[in-house]
Amino acid sequence: MSDIAIIGSDSFIASNFILKNEKNFSLRLFSRKSSGKNDEIILKNLFNITEGHLKDCKCLINFTAIVHKPEIKDKTIYEDINVKLPVHLANVAKKAGIRLFIQMSTIAVYEETEYISEKTNENPSTIYGRSKLKADNQLLKFQDKDFIISIVRPPMVYGGGIAPGNMMKLINAAQRGFPMPFKGIKNERDFINVRNLILALNTIIENGICGIIIPTDKKAISTEEIINYVRKYSNSRVRIIKVPIFILSIIRKFKPDIYNKVFGSLKVTSNIPDTLYKPIFTLEDGIKEMVNLS
Asked: Which residues on adjacent β-strands are paired with residue 157?
């Protein structure tokens, strides 16, 4: 079995990757804090990872990141964790003879638009997106015939239990009885079930796919459908209401950012061929799991 170094093994996606692959690969886990996993290497400062830590590893996956959080006052942390740390890891990984470096990135590196593909203009609007794009560009410079760089940019990740992020917030709000204003909203949004994301990562590892990679569920869904799945599996009373068209028009005109985030579409085109990656798990699967554990 090939050794894979997992950086940020306490993160949500990393934990799901480990659960799926601990019998398929020999995993070497690194984290700043203990998550209770066997043989986890705890380093208060991940910049202390050296070539020796990565000896005999064939692949490294960097799951560490500081996401956009308004409460973070020291903005230099984005530069340190989202840019400098991945570059440090790439340096030591290349020197250690690692063949494949996988960087978990985000579609937040693209401009604000309803349609995203690998050809979409990279113009992030948040400090998080800007820091991730800066790291992506610096990492790609490391690539040569002996050192493959894979930059993975998924849309919103859900499923796998209590996934952090807006999907869980939406489910919790619906189950608390807040009226959900999505009846008749026929928007289209792309997501990825964390189990499908793990399938995509395994595909990247097995096939040595390099460059910019956008994995999705390959099936867009409306916000109304999401709420209907919550209603289907929740023991709570979930209310869904219809907002008058004239009110939606007013919101769209005077608060376009809010309208786009709440009611708008976000189509994301996966660039992994169907011959290599076919999503197995559905949004309904993920919602059911999240509702049962929330």
From this structure: 192
Q: Record the tokens describing residue 284, joined without a space.
A: 């309904």
Whether residue 58 contacts residue 47, with contact meaning beta carbons closer than 8 Å, is answered with no
Q: pTM for this one?
A: 0.94
Average the pLDDT over 17-29 and give the result.
93
pLDDT over 60 at 1, yes or no: no
Q: Are 290 and 168 in contact (CB under 8 A)?
A: yes
Residue 236's contacts (CB-CB under 8 Å, 6 or more residues apart) are 174, 175, 176, 177
**How many angstroms separate the CA atoms of 267 and 115, rounded?**
5
144, 96 contact by CB (below 8 A): no
Measured CA angle at 226 (ends 294, 194), to 5 deg: 65
| Spatial distance between the Cα atoms of 158 and 279, rounded to a whole number of angstroms | 14
Amino acid letter, residue 287: I
| Residues 264, 272: Cα–Cα separation, whole Å | 25
- Using DSSP bridges, classify how beta strands 100-104 and 192-193 pair: parallel, antiparallel or unpaired: unpaired
Determine the Cα–Cα distance for residues 99 and 93; give it in Å rounded to an integer.
Answer: 8
Q: Which residue ranges form the domains of the chain, and what is each CATH number?
A: 3-153 (3.40.50.720), 159-189+221-267+281-293 (no CATH)
Report the sign of the C-alpha dihedral through residues 201, 103, 99, 138, in that order: positive
Q: What is the pLDDT of residues 215-252, one digit of tens each?
A: 999 999 999 999 999 999 998 899 999 999 999 999 98
Strand partners, 100: 59, 148
